[in-house]
Amino acid sequence: MPAMHRITGTTPEPLHDCAATRALEATTATTLAPHTLMQRAGVAVARLAQALAPHARMVWIACGSGNNGGDGLEAAALLQAAGRPVCVTLLTHGRPPQDAAQSLERARQAGVRFVDAAPALGPQDLCVDALLGIGLNAAPRAHGPDARLASSLAQLRASPAATLCVDVPSGLIADTGHWAPGFEGSAPGAGVRHTLALLTLHPGLFTAQGRDAAGTVWLDDLGVDASAQAPAAWLSGTPARHARAHASHKGSFGDVAVVGGEGLAARGMGMTGAAVLAALSALHGGAGRVLLALLDDGATGALAAHPELMLRRFDALELDHGAVVCGCGGGQVVAKVLPRVLDQARRLVLDADALNAIAADAPLQRQLAARGGRADHATVLTPHPLEAARLLASTTAAVQADRLAAAHALARRFACTVVLKGSGTIIAAPAQVARINPTGNALLATAGTGDVLAGLVGARLAASARTDHAAMLEAAGAACWLHGAAADHWPAGRALTASRLASTLDCGY
User: Fold this and answer.
1) N or C terminus of the chain: which is more exposed, having fewer CB within 10 Å?
2) Which structural domain range is residue 280 located in?
3) Are residues 227 and 271 in the same domain?
4) Residues 155 and 51 in one domain
5) CA 227, chain centre distance (Å)
6) What is 413-475 written as a DSSP string?
7) What is the pLDDT of residues 370-393, one digit of tens each?
8) Please, are residues 290 and 283 in contact by the beta-carbon 8 Å criterion?
9) Nearest alpha-carbon partner for 449 in 273, 196, 244, 293
10) Which of 233, 264, 279 is the last residue of a domain?
């Protein structure tokens, strides 16, 4: 039987776009007997359905008129033959494809009951979404679902039963994780959600709205080797752990200098906390020494509890040594120090106000891009979607509509590694296959966690033996995984704050 496994985010997984998946399907079909792939898909769906709902009083399968619906019909025939209670709602739009037509006949011959709408279902039952699959990538419906499709999607969303989506949740664009126009109301309801990807995994299941829509993701490769198709991205796995030699000293693991924390005492405001959080994160993330250069004329009130952090004036920093994290709480003052930082820092993380200053200043943009031509200089940008939109002279909506494309565009424009934060953080670098981070949750939606990530990226850069794009992608990807994993393992019922997050990081050593 083909191998099926749950995607846990601990093992790297290749993610293929729809074009690669269709090419793989077409190539494979020429080597197999007709209808073989759909039969294998039906077996996979039926097996997982029985495993997820072993005590179901009813399995309701909503089938579209294409091959995704054919997979559902094939599963219905198998469930019926196994004596499981099953019924199908079939949405027809003209003559189905040949494989789907064969599966429809098999379901009828097996005695599957066809119904016009969802039956009464309880929490122990199961819905199967086999309506659209990855088809929306090729031809998005201009006005959203028609009446019957909309009704079926609403019933899937409202059902108290768990839902198993075949390939992708219907209405979700598999390549981007964005809801297709008109399908935004297809977002999952209160029921437990599972998605069974067939042949390949898709990037959209792990970023943007895809993570919420897909729920727990499973893969069955249907016995097909997809290695000949280049992935569009990789789902990151657990970073390697490195044993520290007993003969180590603080200089063995690199210095991190944090530049930021503008003080605005005259306006009753201050942002030193952001820089302190980044510095604490770098410290707990494994850096040998952490230097803190506050851009607030030397205010030190926030540091009494953190004697490990070493205060420095900005003009006294040796920027070409170790890694520099610039911008956390930097305010408007950071623009004044950026020319020197961009010129001298060999390993550089740019976050928050540093990114905003660069987005508003063309000479700074040119200086940032020029760093990419210097072999011994490495740069990582850590924007959230609004900051990315400013750097691209675009909109947040456009960035979120295709997060992979936006991250790649930033990496190309500034010749650097990009960490596009959000649900399913994207890590991209020039001439590299991007990564999508599988860890993290809504607990990170609180002030300061982005500063913690910037500091952790800085620690990883400082410890890296190389500065090429592949090494920076590796370092930034590891930081993102560890940052999200800390939130995933946070005790239930305990509030997560950025300072707690920084102090409990598992740096992976």
Assistant:
1) N
2) 255-490
3) no
4) yes
5) 22
6) HHTSEEEE-STT-EEE-TTS-EEE-----GGG-STTHHHHHHHHHHHHHHH-S--SHHHHHHH
7) 999 898 899 999 999 999 999 999
8) yes
9) 273
10) 233
Show the DSSP H helices in 34-163 as ranges.
36-52, 67-81, 98-110, 147-158
- Is position 507 within any domain? no
DSSP tag of 260: E
On whether both 276 and 356 belong to a single domain, the answer is yes
- 308 and 195 together in one domain: no
Tokens of 442: 């809504």
Largest CA distance in the chain: 81
Counting the structural domains of the chain, the total is 2
Contacts of 484 (CB under 8 A, 6+ apart): 425, 437, 438, 439, 440, 441, 444
CB 61 within 8 A of CB 257: no
Question: What do you get for the CA distance between the two ends of the chain, in Å?
Answer: 39
Cβ–Cβ under 8 Å, residues 312 and 238: no
Residues 398 and 481 in one domain: yes
Q: Does residue 296 sit in the same domain as residue 346?
A: yes
Structural tokens at position 3: 């191998």
CATH number at residue 464: 3.40.1190.20
Q: Per the domain annotation, does 249 fall within a domain?
A: no
The answer as to whether 114 is a domain residue is yes
List residues bridging with 255 in a β-sheet: 289
CATH of the domain at 194: 3.40.50.10260
AA identity, residue 248:
S
User: For residue range 432-484, what is the model confidence (pLDDT) as tens digits?
Assistant: 999 999 999 999 999 999 999 999 999 999 999 899 999 999 999 999 999 99
Helix (H), strand (E), coil (C) string for 132-185: CHHHHHCCCCCCCCCHHHHHHHHHHHHCCCEEEEECCCCCECCCCCCECCCCHH
d(CA 471, CA 69): 43
pLDDT tens-digit readout, 303-318: 657 778 898 999 999 9
Asked whether residue 131 is assigned to any structural domain, the reply reads: yes
Whose CA is closest to 505, among 491, 488, 486? Answer: 486
pTM: predicted TM-score of the whole model, two decimal places: 0.94
User: Which residues, at least 6 apart from 390, have a Cβ–Cβ distance to it below 8 Å?
Assistant: 355, 356, 359, 360
